[in-house]
Description:
Strand order of the largest sheet: 3-8-5
Organism: Lanius ludovicianus (Loggerhead shrike)
Protein name: PIGT transamidase
Low-confidence stretches: none
Distance between the termini: 46 Å
Radius of gyration: 22 Å
Amino acid sequence: CSLQAGLAVLLKAERLFHSSYHSQAVHIRPVCRGSHWFAQPPCGGFTDASCLAVSWELRQTLTVVFDFFSSGQGKKDWSLFKMFSRTLTDTCPLASQSKVYVDISPKNKEKELLEVSPPPTSVHEAVVQGDKKTYAVYDLLSPSLFNTSRSLNVQLKWKRPQDSSEMPIPTLHAQRYVGGYGLQTGEICTLIYNTHPYRAFPVILLETVPWYLRLYVHTLTITTKGKENKPS
Length: 232
């Protein structure tokens, strides 16, 4: 459907590339679709030597971060049109699934503070990093979604101002900065924080190295809670 229908309608280049952060990724992995016994590890691929047929799974992802909180005088309201300058007009006929999820989890147990419109087709609950999350789901394949209008502009509004203008700190977050200069003293420092009171989480760190820095693996140091954690 290209940019004619479906979620790809929102992918307007000048809006994406002027955001605070964007990342595109392509993931390809083999998946066993026929064997005497099925065993597929969570990291992808397969270990079953008796696999009879192999399929290749292609997954494309686009991650975008819009910072309307700092640019909109501290307002947390947003909409699809405000972010992408476009709205959803129709679903792609080739898609077997096409859904929009909106995180409406209450941060301080006051559910009446936020409101999403139009009303979602369903509500989904899940546990993410030990916290219970609530999502408003908009199913683009639902006939009732485009009945009243040929345009879907999902909006989230706060019914009254927040007591605090500070954004909540996520459980896992990271900071990175470049220090020094040149090949001798130049360095990249990455700080990873876990603010959960008692739980530990596995972390996969993918670093994008600036073109002006050359890394030497033998100088890599990892420090956890003040103690050196030697990398393998």
